[in-house]
Design brief:
There is one protein chain. The protein has 164 residues and is of the alpha/beta class. Helix content is 27%, strand content 28%. The chain has one domain: 2,3-Dihydroxybiphenyl 1,2-Dioxygenase, domain 1, CATH 3.10.180. Strands 1-4-3-2 form a 4-stranded mixed sheet, with helices on one face.
Length: 164
């Protein structure tokens, strides 16, 4: 078994255990799901275009003085913040930096994941780390990309949504 698959299986196991622990405990402060995710980007226009034109999300706000744009698919809200000086910004390295390793976005079906992969292949500035493939032994299927500013995104179809 390769190291990446071991890491993925450990991550899934930790996630399942963590989810069970959280559900088993009382939530004394009433915290709920993620309200929104803020991502610092080096290429604001290209990142906005990726979400809006590439993924079909909508602009739902922003602040041109900050500058930032808010995008949403109706379930998830992401704030894209332009870094102050893109030329001196330090790109994230998933093994060396503290911070967001990747953002995982659920996809409705395997067919839509493949259609999304085909669409993303056409978008300039997007790096496809790997095409749709099983996560571990499957049937959960995912792909990993870097959007135009380098933010690492995973698109994932949970196994219970895949007909076998």
């Amino acid at each position: 078994m390769t190291n990446i698959f071991k890491t993925i299986l450990i991550t899934i196991t930790i996630g399942v255990i963590g989810f069970s622990i959280v559900n088993a405990q009382e939530n004394p402060f009433g915290t709920e799901g993620i309200n929104h995710t803020g991502l610092a980007v080096s290429r604001l226009d290209e990142s906005v275009s990726f979400f809006v034109e590439g993924l079909g999300w909508k602009k739902v706000g922003g602040d041109p003085d900050y500058p930032s744009v808010f995008v949403s698919n109706g379930k998830t809200l992401i704030t894209l913040w332009q870094v102050e000086d893109p030329m001196t910004a330090i790109p994230f390295h998933r093994c060396k930096n503290i911070g967001l390793h990747h953002l995982a976005i659920t996809v409705e079906s395997l067919e839509k994941l493949h259609a999304l992969h085909d669409r993303i292949k056409e978008i300039e500035g997007v790096n496809i780390e790997f095409a749709p493939e099983y996560l571990g032994n499957g049937p959960t299927t995912h792909m990993m990309i870097n959007e135009p500013s380098g933010i690492r995104l995973e698109f994932i179809v949970p196994g219970d949504r895949i007909k076998q």
